[in-house]
Amino acid sequence: MADKSLPQLLASYRERKHLLALLKEIQEVYGYLPGEFIPEIARSLGLPVAEVYGVGTFYSFLSARLQGRNVIRVCKSAPCWLKNCELIVETLKRELGIGPGETTRDGRFSLQLTNCIGACDQAPAMMINDTTYVDLTPEKIPEILGGYK
């Protein structure tokens, strides 16, 4: 499952300023941030457990639950809302058979709603993994998803 063990990862990040980078790498290796790792991460960096937990739960790109291979993040900020992002969410729900916060049974997709992804000028927008899709319409969704199936 994991390319690196937790002790190997912790050895690569020794300072408080590396917390976010460490959490991101743990998620890349394990697919999520296992809760049982939080105290060990805190000890390793000399931080309170609450701080590590707070950072790990603050960012939408970090998850305490195993995510699908392809994480879809639909922007729900004001510009996207004004451009009918709810139609995009409804289309995704219908196409994937899941709602926000869920993962498909085959583990291929997770659907999340998030605040600004930095594409407000081209709303509505979503990201799948690290790729941003803009100026979305319900008609574009099946084709976009087809590239990940």
Identify the CATH class of the largest domain: Alpha Beta
Domain count: 2
> Structural class of the secondary structure composition?
alpha+beta
Overall outline: elongated
Beta percentage is 5-15%
Question: Strand order within the widest sheet?
Answer: 2-3-1-4-5
How many angstroms separate the termini? Answer: 22 Å
Low-confidence stretches: none
CATH architect. name of the largest domain: 3-Layer(aba) Sandwich
What is the CATH superfamily of the largest domain? Answer: Glutaredoxin
What's the total count of β strands? 5
Specify Rg, calculated over alpha carbons: 17 Å
The number of helices is 7
Task: Offer a few descriptive terms.
149 residues, alpha+beta, Glutaredoxin, five-stranded mixed sheet, 40% helix, elongated
Please provide a brief summary of the model:
This protein is an alpha+beta fold. About 40% of the residues lie in helices and about 15% in strands.
Summarize the structure in words:
This protein has 149 residues and is of the alpha+beta class. The protein has two domains: 53 residues, no CATH class; 77 residues, Glutaredoxin (3-Layer(aba) Sandwich). Helices cover 40% and strands 13% of the residues. The protein is built from seven helices and five strands, in the order H-H-H-H-E-H-H-E-E-E-E-H. The chain has a five-stranded mixed sheet with strand order 2-3-1-4-5, covered by helices on one side. Helix 3 packs across helix 4. The longest helix has 12 residues.
